[in-house]
Amino acid sequence: MKFKLVGHNRFVIYLLLSHLTCISITSVPPEVKVSSRQSGSTMKLHCQVYGFYPRDVDVIWKMNRMEISLDEAKHILPNSDGTYQLRVSVEVIPEEEASYSCHVDHSSLGEPLITMLAPAPSCG
Description:
This protein has one helix and eight strands; from the N terminus they run H-E-E-E-E-E-E-E-E. It has one helix at 7-20, and strands at 31-39, 42-52, 57-63, 66-67, 77-78, 84-92, 100-106, 113-116. The strands form two sheets. The chain has a four-stranded antiparallel sheet, with no helix packed on it. Mean pLDDT is 84; it is low at 5-17. Residues 30-118 form the Ig-like domain. This is Ig-like domain-containing protein. It comes from Leptobrachium leishanense.
């Protein structure tokens, strides 16, 4: 089915499109979930950052407030709603009494968002 835009319809479409281009979302703050998975003597930490806009974001893992080097490249992916997502993972050798935290810095935030990884339950 084809439609032909003539006269008034064409003008209405023009007005709608010209106003839609002026609408923009300034920023949407990220949501963060952290998780871990034990594998033998190592533990993989995952920091999932999602639902943020604009695209630029900085995500790091820290152990006892010291930055941990990343295992893999950061790949920011688009969501269908126009926001973005990212997962940052690191592999560590777990240490007793160590605290792990994911730090997210985004333009929508007044200060970096810090999400602590809950300590694993102790057996005994």
